[in-house]
Amino acid sequence: MKKINFVIVGYGGMGSYHANTLMPTEKEKINVYGAYDVLPERQAAAKEAGLKTYASYADVLADTDVEAVLIATPNDSHKDLAIAALKAGKHVLCEKPVMMNVVEFDEVLEVAKETGQTFMVHQNRRWDPDFLMIRKIYQDRPIGEIFQLESRVQGANGIPGDWRHLKEHGGGMLLDWGVHLLDQILWLVDSPVKDFFVDFSQILGDPVDDGFISYLTFENGVRALVEVGTTNFTKLPRWYVKGIEGTAKIDDWDCQGEMIRATRAENVSAPTPIQAGVGLTKTMAPPSEEAMEKIDLPTATAEYQPFYANLYEVIREEATPIVKNSEVRQVLALIDEMFARVAGK
Amino acid sequence: MKKINFVIVGYGGMGSYHANTLMPTEKEKINVYGAYDVLPERQAAAKEAGLKTYASYADVLADTDVEAVLIATPNDSHKDLAIAALKAGKHVLCEKPVMMNVVEFDEVLEVAKETGQTFMVHQNRRWDPDFLMIRKIYQDRPIGEIFQLESRVQGANGIPGDWRHLKEHGGGMLLDWGVHLLDQILWLVDSPVKDFFVDFSQILGDPVDDGFISYLTFENGVRALVEVGTTNFTKLPRWYVKGIEGTAKIDDWDCQGEMIRATRAENVSAPTPIQAGVGLTKTMAPPSEEAMEKIDLPTATAEYQPFYANLYEVIREEATPIVKNSEVRQVLALIDEMFARVAGK
């Protein structure tokens, strides 16, 4: 087993997280070999962490000991960095959003095809424990067939960092958390998007979106509400999922929540009307006790390999990637359409 | 002070609720005089309750002691009943949805104009305590200017009753709870609807909607998500409201919830990144403690009259109605458009 020598390109928050936390989970396979950043202080940090550093990106690509690069730079720089690396015979792992748009992505895929190098995107949130639970509920149907998924990520800190405020760098929340949430949903539902609605939030005065609400209708009939917010001082649940026989919610990253299903017991008594505001309602009254039961949320682990283990096999053994470029392209195409729809194109 | 003699037309759940609960709150002004229903068992119930009953609707209208009728029958019968009553010189209070569509409503309004009788709609949920709290937050701005309102009513009992399952009677949830929630929002925001999105749920196999999700964009920039569900075994909060300076939620009819706002304190430390799934996030990390404060949800009462007190003054003293027909018409026009949009018209 020959380790893959990786150079981290862009040694910021994400790049150093790969180097220090993610790559070491597969240290038999992945070797954090070096790093490159345009900022001197980050070069210094990389050197201090014991990584080989380079004077230029060209030097990285000229280093024959380097087999692969991780691109963790601002979004608008991904394309050129990726193409140069592929042409230099390096494999490329790219942070999300993979590119600024599908046109860019297709260029890169074309080069990858020509060179035969691996190009893969770090859609790591397919391994999020909360997502795995929802995926299990979707697949095993403890609350019947799922017809509606609501996926929300809400914070109160506004848009982070510097370049994420800028359009030309691919800033904004749709291209940040949005990419993750849409990737999860599209991968899970695995049906073409028939139609969508989207509304961007620009409350904070940035030229980019500080959040969005989208609603997708899939050809198989499933609906998904996908929302990212950065002006939410109290939150709605991370997941809210409706099946024919019940409903599940997961409150937060801690994966707490609840799942309630209809018992379909015989002789269930009708719900008792309740006072709701100034009126009575039977429709919105809680079902009678014997009509519902609380069931445990599933425990779930990925039945697929960890990301870096898979990447290793993709590079070394031509294994099938878990994160396929065709899937990544679908998400990006949807995002392109969302921007175009709002721009009135 | 001469009481207004009312006859309840349609002595079902809603009609009897008016007779037994709502009208008696103004017993100096409103007299529950009689009732009429096409079903013999309901006629019997009305008689047993001490109400005068009638052999036919014509008999109600011929009774010169009757000054006003409450129409609480299936939705498709409102128009003919209302027009006949107005022409017979009776005032009309009508349950919601006022009519099947705007064309019908305009016909009725025309007759009311000709006859000079009062026609008013029972949009009683403008007096709901939870709505009054949201209204106060909207107006007093303890969390800054409100730019997003989310109003949800979710049950797990499906569509209630019999005729509400049928299209020809004006069944479905948009014409049921939807009318209330849209009336509240349109009245509160008080700005033209610039655009909307709507998706109906027909999960239960009924020919009508068993719920819907709508998203309204107002000309003043406010957004509102309005949702009714009848297949929700666990619920999202009744209200979720975002202001520039904070967020409020009200969980349920009991008006519990929370309101959090930014302190805008100086020297607030940056939020500490948290582990979220398999990744780190600073964007979605809780703001530092000194950056937010919990404030009390407001107590709120209507600064306007109770419904029946207002109706009395409208009839007796030409007071301004709190529920204006022009407002009711806006809601109905929006609903018409929602149905048309989905039907692809």
Automatic annotation (TrEMBL), chains A, B:
<dbReference type="Pfam" id="PF01408">
    <property type="entry name" value="GFO_IDH_MocA"/>
</dbReference>
<dbReference type="InterPro" id="IPR051317">
    <property type="entry name" value="Gfo/Idh/MocA_oxidoreduct"/>
</dbReference>
<dbReference type="InterPro" id="IPR055170">
    <property type="entry name" value="GFO_IDH_MocA-like_dom"/>
</dbReference>
<protein>
    <submittedName>
        <fullName>Gfo/Idh/MocA family protein</fullName>
    </submittedName>
</protein>
<feature type="domain" description="GFO/IDH/MocA-like oxidoreductase">
    <location>
        <begin position="131"/>
        <end position="248"/>
    </location>
</feature>
<dbReference type="InterPro" id="IPR036291">
    <property type="entry name" value="NAD(P)-bd_dom_sf"/>
</dbReference>
<dbReference type="Pfam" id="PF22725">
    <property type="entry name" value="GFO_IDH_MocA_C3"/>
</dbReference>
<dbReference type="InterPro" id="IPR000683">
    <property type="entry name" value="Gfo/Idh/MocA-like_OxRdtase_N"/>
</dbReference>
<feature type="domain" description="Gfo/Idh/MocA-like oxidoreductase N-terminal">
    <location>
        <begin position="4"/>
        <end position="122"/>
    </location>
</feature>
